[in-house]
Write a structure and sequence with these properties.
The chain has 277 residues and is mainly α. The chain is built from 14 helices and no strands.
Length: 277
């Protein structure tokens, strides 16, 4: 199986987003928007459980603890995977040009958060978890979020609070959502509910869910490109988790037109595929 092209998001993609927003008629996004109207992101992406019950009492029964342990261990891994998008010799999020004054802080916080994830997993001691402390390193609280004391020991929360990082992530999700909606307008059920609803609910979801939406958007891009690469070889492509719950046939994620639709719109299938890239 051929590997998908290396993905990244940086100055060129930001410029492409600006171009798309100025040239795509809003009506081209309407079918996907209408398809997911009335749906909630939480239906397709399970929220991270709070360590406290709704009445504020800490969860203590065995089933609750088992669920917390499973969810939080997975969440720490997801957080580490997300933060690695900023780090390493070939990061997914490319440096801004010219360099933004906050960019070094973003890189530092991302690496500290990666290290924290590794340390938390390595030192995990079943039966001795501090659930409230773990939760606070994943989900921002509504109190004292602007103080240095609040951010101490919570590099991921500080990273997501940085204006440069917040704007970059917002633009990336919009970049994928807009292209997805345009290319899926003839078959809106083939779009990702997590990407679209994450885009529309972006400013109301917590930082951990924002990180998951970013990873889902990247995964969607990789999936579409892999399907394009595999099509000529007659190979199937495994669906991302956020598409397997949506009823559809293999390859329906690809932007596609019936012959009648192609004639009516004047757009060929080849041209439609080019529009995604």
């Amino acid at each position: 199986m051929s590997a998908p092209p290396q993905l990244h998001f940086g100055p060129a993609e930001l410029a492409r987003l600006a171009e798309l927003k100025s040239t795509i008629p809003p009506a081209e996004l309407d079918p996907v928007a209408a398809h997911w109207t009335g749906q909630s992101l939480s239906r397709y992406m399970q929220p991270l459980a709070s360590p406290n019950k709704p009445e504020g009492i800490l969860r203590r029964n065995r089933d609750d603890i088992t669920r917390l342990r499973s969810q939080y261990q997975a969440a720490i891994g997801i957080r580490g995977e997300f933060c690695k998008l900023f780090t390493g010799p070939a990061p997914f999020f490319l440096p801004p040009i010219p360099e933004h004054q906050d960019y070094p802080d973003v890189l530092h916080l991302a690496q500290v958060a990666v290290d924290q994830s590794s340390a938390q997993i390595a030192s995990w001691a079943p039966g001795h978890e501090n659930w409230q402390s773990l939760y606070a390193t994943l989900v921002q609280q509504n109190r004292a979020t602007g103080t240095l004391a609040y951010f101490n020991g919570r590099p991921f929360i500080k990273l997501m609070s940085e204006p440069y990082c917040a704007a970059l992530l917002d633009r990336y999700v919009e970049y994928v959502a807009v292209r997805m909606a345009r290319s899926s307008r003839w078959n809106p059920a083939s779009s990702s509910p997590v990407v679209w609803l994450g885009y529309t609910e972006w400013h109301s979801i917590n930082f951990f869910d924002q990180a998951r939406v970013v990873l889902a958007a990247k995964e969607y891009e990789e999936y579409v490109r892999q399907v394009f690469a595999n099509r000529a070889l007659g190979l199937s492509t495994p669906k991302p988790w956020h598409l397997t719950s949506v009823p559809m046939f293999e390859l329906q994620h690809l932007p596609s037109l019936t012959s009648r639709q192609a004639r009516r719109s004047g757009v060929s299938q080849e041209e439609l595929e080019k529009r995604w890239t």
